[in-house]
Amino acid sequence: MTLQQADARTAAEPIPVLAVVGVGLIGGSFAAALRRAGQVGRVLGVGRNGPSLERARELGLIDEAVGAAEAAARADLIMLASPVGTFGAILAEMRASLKPGAIVTDAGSTKVAVAQAARAALGERLACFVPGHPIAGAEKVGPDAADPCLYTGRNVVLTPLPENAAADVARVRAAWEACGARVLEMDTVEHDQVLASVSHMPHFLAAVYVAQVARSADSRQRLAIAGTGFRDFTRIAAGSAEMWRDIFVSNRAAMKAELAEVRTVLDEAERALDRGDGAALEALLEEAARFRRDWKTGR
Amino acid sequence: MTLQQADARTAAEPIPVLAVVGVGLIGGSFAAALRRAGQVGRVLGVGRNGPSLERARELGLIDEAVGAAEAAARADLIMLASPVGTFGAILAEMRASLKPGAIVTDAGSTKVAVAQAARAALGERLACFVPGHPIAGAEKVGPDAADPCLYTGRNVVLTPLPENAAADVARVRAAWEACGARVLEMDTVEHDQVLASVSHMPHFLAAVYVAQVARSADSRQRLAIAGTGFRDFTRIAAGSAEMWRDIFVSNRAAMKAELAEVRTVLDEAERALDRGDGAALEALLEEAARFRRDWKTGR
After folding, report:
1. Inter-chain contact A212–B136, Cβ cutoff 8 Å?
2. Matching CATH number, A190-293, of 3.90.10.10, 3.40.50.360, 1.10.3660.10, 3.40.1010.10
3. Is B280 on the interface with A (CB under 8 A)?
4. Looking at CA atoms only, how far is residue B185 from chain A in angstroms?
5. ipTM topping 0.85
């Protein structure tokens, strides 16, 4: 049986051949969710990490591991779920062999830099690239963390490019909806500003805080009595350093603007602490508590 | 039946009469856990908030609401679970009527200031006060949040005073162990330094961050796409503003020292961000991720 025959056998599904670049938590969960929903035929896995690809195959997340060019030639939908810093090189490698009608999307946490990288790498084929970002994740990494329910009830933001065909955007939307996600659309700049605030900044602050605890002379004793507040506040700091490095670097401008605002409030809070000003501290704490309690998402 | 008769009816339990000052999450859960363990006879509730006391009685957390002086006269064990800033006045009110042999303990999150307040308020009766701190809590507040399982598997730190009798410390330890907690002992200064790091600082940073998001012009849109990272990182910021105000003010010196260390790492991270220095960012992120993943508490 040729590769084309293997792919054709499964042509009854909405996505006959799916390729996932990066078969960890994000990519593996996307494949698993689409498979569970009966939306996908054959799943190709692409990645630099041999053991991860082999593990993804053992787990049934992918059917076979292939190179980027072969994935481009065979897949109807390609999901880039590797660190965002890798997208440019991967898209450049795929460009010449992309199957006609194929759609490429991604799960990168920043969108301005991703759109720029796609534009540079794909040139006149840019229209096939529909940028996206699932607002979901966990502190776990790797194929073993993949979960077909990861996206259930989660938000996915698509940031379509002016070049995209409406039908292609609709197909990416349908794939995410089949994973159980709610799909929103925003423009790339707006996405990056909002995400810098509600996603990237918490990770940045949690990592800074955990590194500070780690460097303390009595760090082991501190951990021994740390409780649930510490647990929840620091959970995201256990995430992939490589992935978050790329996110911070590629969303640097929005992060810096947001961090300046955080420092303004931090300075205000520290001044109140210095003065022992209970009223000012309580006002700030109450402002935060009310806002957080009012967050009605049921999560 | 006189009050003394009502109390005597239940004298078979290890704690014939328990008084809880502050019948919210912490105090209510302590009473509920001891009652479930069959350790307590009658439970008296003390508080400033009439509706909370009535609700605690409806829920069966307390048997009756009484004033501080009456609680002191009748109780064998008194748990102070109101904000730490209230302890001095409550202990002063109780001092003259404390039943012989009664033990007073507390659940305050700082211990140096609490020990000072107890010393000032109790004078020659100081020996009956055994300071303690359960490392447990939740973003919920009030008697409805009380949970007999809140302390199961959690750490409780006792910081005995030089004046305490070993038998009294042992009785407080036994009460917490009956609640399912693990009991550790530390001195008051060490406790406050460690807690400033692993408990108070996360709350301070989470509140600063949430207040900054709350003040943004597009705060509603930010919340609309915030995900699980935001949820976990900010959970503690929903806690009681009054309680945390008192904690911050009473543990101000340790907080300030810790905050200076956090700012050192924050500055380092921001400089790396400014330079777009992916290697430096990744090193910091990896340091935090390894430390957090190595936290083996099963929680």
Report:
1. no
2. 1.10.3660.10
3. no
4. 11
5. no
Chain A residues lying within 8 Å of B26, measured CB to CB: none
Ordered by start, the domain boundaries in chain B are 3-186, 191-293
Searching chain B, which residue's CA lies closest to the CA of residue A154? B227
CB neighbours (10 Å) of residue B8?
15
* Residue in chain B lying closest to A224 (CA): B297
pLDDT in tens, A137-179: 766 789 999 999 999 999 999 999 999 999 999 999 999 999 9
B93-127 pLDDT, tens digit each:
999 999 999 999 999 989 999 999 999 999 999 99
Indicate the pTM of the whole model: 0.78
CA of A2 to nearest chain B CA: how many angstroms apart? Answer: 43
**b/e string for A248-270 if b means 16 or more Cβ within 10 A?**
bbbbbebbeebbebbeebbebbb
Q: Find the helix or strand (DSSP H, E) in which B41 lies.
A: strand B40-46
Is B92 an 8 Å CB contact of chain A? no
Tell which phi-psi region holds residue B249, choosing left (phi > 0), alpha (psi between -120 and 50) or beta: alpha
Q: Which CATH number fits domain B191-293: 3.30.70.1070, 1.10.3660.10, 2.130.10.10, 3.90.550.10?
A: 1.10.3660.10
Encoding tokens for residue A274? 């210095």
CATH 3.40.50.720 fits A3-186, yes or no: yes
